[in-house]
Task: structure prediction
Amino acid sequence: MSLNQPPITDERQLPLPEPSGDGAGPATDPDERPPSGGLRFALPSIEWARVWRALRVGLRAGVVVVVVSVALGTAAFVAAGFYGQYGTVRNAPDTASWAALAPRFAGQTLCTSCHAPESAAQVASAHLAVSCESCHGPAAAHAIDATAASAALLIRPTSGICVTCHAATAGRPATFP
Result:
């Protein structure tokens, strides 16, 4: 378009093609005519193929989001029907019942306070990191009441207990004793 024409403000006011300077017909300047041969509107050129491609990709992503949301919502709805199938969840009473239990294990420190010779033998052996109660069982009752009756409750280690740690097990390092 030439500079002497007024700007296009309405679609009904499209200018007619101007003849070129040599009289051979309408102007063929690429800025004046789109490749399709028609006149260009005042808007800048838009690559509509890219626009449609972006819209298709966005539409597909939106469909995926909707499908996943519906699937997760359905799963949550179905899971709500099974929740509590084996009774209601009672975390507070369970916590209180666990807290009310008397401790069964005394701990390594309490054992070594009375059994110094055995503790020295354990420190000198390969069982340094093994707690006394790992082989002898829970000893809290024996630690509170050190009578012969409570000592009888402790386990006398046998080779069966040793196998608990020393058996060849898949996943245990081959260098494990």
In short: The first helix runs from residue 48 to 82. Helices lie at 48-82, 91-100, 108-114, 116-124, 132-136, 140-144, 148-152, 159-166. The two ends are 93 Å apart (CA to CA).
